Amino acid sequence: VIGKTFIVDGDPREIVGVMGPELSFPGDNIAAWMPFDVRPSPDGLGQPSGGAIARVRPGVSADDVARELTGLVRQLPDRFGNNAAYARLLPRLQVVTRSLRTEMVGPVTRPLGVLFAATFIVLVIACANVGNLFGVRAETRRHEVAIRQAIGAQRGQLIRAQMAEVIVVALLAAVLAVAVARLALPVFVSLAPVNVPRLATAAVGLPTIGFTFVLALMAGLACGIVPVLRSSAVRAVDMRGSTRSVTGRRRWE
């Protein structure tokens, strides 16, 4: 369609480019961009005509842009006429600049941060509970560990074997979490406020899946490392007197 002309709002418009579907600038509801006719006129001095978005060179900060624009604004009376009221207003004007990311997601940054912190606290509580379960399981396996050490198993082998179980549990939890997230995401999106920026792009993609698996492995290691180290430190000599022979009551005939 590049080069073709269409009638938009009664005016012929030529298509000069097509952006990819992943671009949502400056919002998700934008279908097309059209040039804005700039017609300088002294009658319009001091009347705002809308915002402006610019791409700056690498290394240029928002403060640098604000200082440069402020200097240019204060030169406007000399360039477009010495309107007395306008000349008195401009020295008090200060241009404010901010990044596009801040403009788009700034209003929801703090609520999302609070939500993320609450999720992290819930994760810590869950890790503590799972760690206690691993500790109970490790206590029930003290005899098994002692017997394995008695027949020649090294402590490193015991740690690796038990950590393998922890990692399997963590991976299964990650798979379950991804499945639940994929099923629940459409429901959460439908219940979210309509003014949440970039809500239409929310998806359980590869970055999300990778983050989930990495976080699950880290949580699993944090939950299981202490119980595994404690249980692997059991020695067979420490278990003497704490067990009963299973053949003590058996009557041999």
Topology (elements, then pairings):
Layout: E1 5-8, E2 11-14, H1 62-73, H2 76-80, H3 84-89, H4 100-140, H5 142-150, H6 155-191, H7 206-232
Helix pairs in contact: 4-7, 6-7
What do you see in this structure?
This protein has 253 residues and is mainly alpha-helical. The protein is 54% helix and 3% strand. The chain has a two-stranded antiparallel ribbon. Helix 4 runs parallel beside helix 7 and helix 6 (155-191) runs antiparallel to helix 7. The longest helix is centred in the middle third of the chain and has 41 residues, at 100-140. Mean pLDDT is 78; it is low at 243-253.
Characterize the overall form.
elongated
Main pleated-sheet profile = 2 strands, antiparallel
Low-pLDDT windows of residues: 243-253
Helix content: 40-55%
Sequence of strands across the biggest β-sheet:
1-2
Number of helical segments with 4 or more residues = 7
Q: How many angstroms does the end-to-end distance come to?
A: 96 Å
Strand content: under 5%
Question: Helix and strand succession?
Answer: EEHHHHHHH
Rounded average pLDDT: 78
Q: What Rg, in angstroms, do the CA atoms define? A: 33 Å
Structural class determined from secondary elements = mainly alpha
